[in-house]
Amino acid sequence: MNIGPKTVTVFHYTLRNAAGEELETSRGSDPSAFLYGANNIIPGLEKALKDRTAGDVFTADIAADDAYGQVDPKRQQRVPSKHLVYKGKLKPGMVVQLNTSEGRVPVTVVKAGRHSADIDTNHPLAGQALSFDIEIIEVREASAEEVAHGHAHGPGGHHH
């Protein structure tokens, strides 16, 4: 079965930046799972996975525009420190979690003050070209429930 609409793909990945530094990997833990077409992964990776099948091993180089987009300088703001989730002392360059009405989102601290912080709400990988080493483990038809919920269920996917 090929990856396409209404399929769930289970895969291992290693993510690297343009300098070749490993940023993240699923190897050594559960593989990731996603529902094709539900905007669960970055657009460039979904395009690179389309029409692939179980057993495929490949590298996908993704431009910044097809990953997390370009850095938008208007996405910096000052917030009270109490809205940030972090451990230790708040320092510039730290990636922390910002509590929002839609849940937590990663932000980068630009400047840390006593009671507030200047943060950058661009995704920490915005503006960067990325490279994914992919190993497709399984491709299967999505269940009606997965399609209705807009995400894969089970190991590597969402658990209710």
TrEMBL record:
GO terms for molecular function: peptidyl-prolyl cis-trans isomerase activity. Residues 6-94 form the PPIase FKBP-type domain. GO terms for cellular component: cytoplasm. It catalyses: [protein]-peptidylproline (omega=180) = [protein]-peptidylproline (omega=0). PROSITE patterns: FKBP_PPIASE. It is found in: Cytoplasm. GO terms for biological process: protein refolding. It comes from the Bacteria. Keywords: Chaperone, Cytoplasm, Isomerase, Rotamase. It holds the Pfam family FKBP_C. Its EC number is 5.2.1.8. InterPro entries: PPIase_dom_sf (IPR046357), PPIase_FKBP_dom (IPR001179). It is an enzyme of class 5 (isomerase). Also involved in hydrogenase metallocenter assembly, probably by participating in the nickel insertion step. This function in hydrogenase biosynthesis requires chaperone activity and the presence of the metal-binding domain, but not PPIase activity. Belongs to the FKBP-type PPIase family. This is Peptidyl-prolyl cis-trans isomerase.
